[in-house]
Amino acid sequence: RSNKARSAYVAMEPRDALDYACVKNAILQKFEISPETYRLRFRNDVVGEDESPRELYVRIKGLYEKWMLPNTKTKEQIGETIILEQFLKVVNPDLRSWILERGPSSAAEAAKMAEAYVTARRAEGPFQLGARHQNYGACSGSRPRLWPDEP
């Protein structure tokens, strides 16, 4: 690990190597750590073996702050990030990949991209916009309960 960090530092311009923010960014890039890395950790994290509730909270909050960068974004920008994430989560996996390859900066931009994709695919036949979901039971209203008091 330290060799990788050292190589990032050595490759920097001398004046940039004196700037902490530049050094930090170079090392994060070398390790391929980005807000997406923190988003995935935030969404997929589990409780540590000996972790207390307070430690879990602090760790999750830290991942959120590294993912969302709330000190540099407005609440609208944070909301847009969450909406984009959910939009990408529910669409067809092929469509999701196609959109991600184009790097939308907002959910609205992703929706426009999706419209173009769907329009082009409809000429080939029916296109399912949403991802296929697990069938939770024979009854149409059957689904897993997320909270104990949920109807």
Automatic annotation (TrEMBL):
PROSITE patterns membership: SCAN_BOX
InterPro entries for this protein: SCAN_dom, SCAN_sf
Domain SCAN box: 39-115
Gene3D superfamilies membership: DNA breaking-rejoining enzymes
Membrane-crossing segments per the record: none
Organism of provenance: Pygocentrus nattereri
Domain of life: Eukaryota
Protein name: SCAN box domain-containing protein
